[in-house]
Design brief:
This protein is of the alpha/beta class and 219 residues long. 21% of the residues lie in helices and 17% in strands. The protein has a domain of 153 residues: 3-Layer(aba) Sandwich (Rossmann fold). Strands 3-2-1-4-5-6 form a 6-stranded parallel sheet, sandwiched between helices. Helix 3 packs parallel to helix 4. The N and C termini lie close together (8 Å).
Length: 219
């Protein structure tokens, strides 16, 4: 398969990583990402193509217990983009609570091609933005070992939200030695605080992360 700029990409060593496409991050959700549901169609198309051509598909999901450290309600304060607790833990509205409708994947996301689901942020006192590490930056989710055992070297990444879980995941992926492309038509930002989407893309550029659209990989 010929990918971006004519570079050959072997799908046998490629995985599509779908980040947190859950009800609470889509329209009407507790922590709604504007136009979050628009990432679903391109991700569905690429996921099917990926597995049909020897690639892998992995999805992640926030899976928080009630009273999670990231919830403003657990600290009896209002959720605010400027309100941080210990260790700069951002405080968000209660979201993706284990077993809740909000924690479920968005209903039109096709899970049939998904071969592994990584649940993160399930420790009461530890949040997890990245698909690879909890926010202590040392506790692993197990994804890196899974991918390397399968010989995956290239990651195509989309999902929610650009400026948090997508950003942390792609930066960790590069640090772990993967070749990474962010799918710009399959990400949306929560943009809290204002301008964080631009900051995220600048960080990706500085890290040497490629940007492309899903159609660039569907031939």
């Amino acid at each position: 398969m010929e990918g971006i700029n004519g570079i050959e990409i072997a799908l046998a060593g490629t995985a599509l990583l779908i980040i947190d496409v859950q009800n609470d991050f889509c329209k009407g959700g507790a922590l709604e990402v504007r136009d979050g549901e628009t990432v679903v169609a391109p991700l569905n198309a690429l996921a099917e193509y990926c597995v049909d051509h020897g690639g892998r598909v992995i999805a992640t999901a926030d899976w928080h217990p009630r009273g999670h450290v990231s919830f403003a309600s657990a600290h009896k304060v209002a959720a605010s983009d400027a309100d941080n607790g210990a260790n700069d833990q951002a405080r968000w509205p209660d979201h993706c609570v284990q077993g809740s409708k909000g924690a479920q994947f968005y209903e039109s996301l096709n899970l049939n091609p998904v071969q592994l689901i990584i649940r993160k942020g399930f420790r009461p006192n530890l949040d997890s933005y990245s698909a690879f590490f909890e926010n202590d930056r040392t506790t692993q989710t197990g994804l890196d070992g899974y991918l390397k055992a399968l010989g995956v070297t290239t990651l195509l990444i989309g999902g929610l939200a650009t400026d948090y879980c997508v950003l942390y995941s792609v930066l960790d992926a590069v640090r772990l030695g993967y070749r990474v492309t962010v799918l710009v038509d399959a990400v949306q930002a929560v943009n809290i605080p204002a301008g964080s989407e631009q900051v995220a893309f600048a960080a990706m550029h500085e890290a040497g992360i490629a940007l492309a659209e899903t159609k660039d990989f569907i031939l």
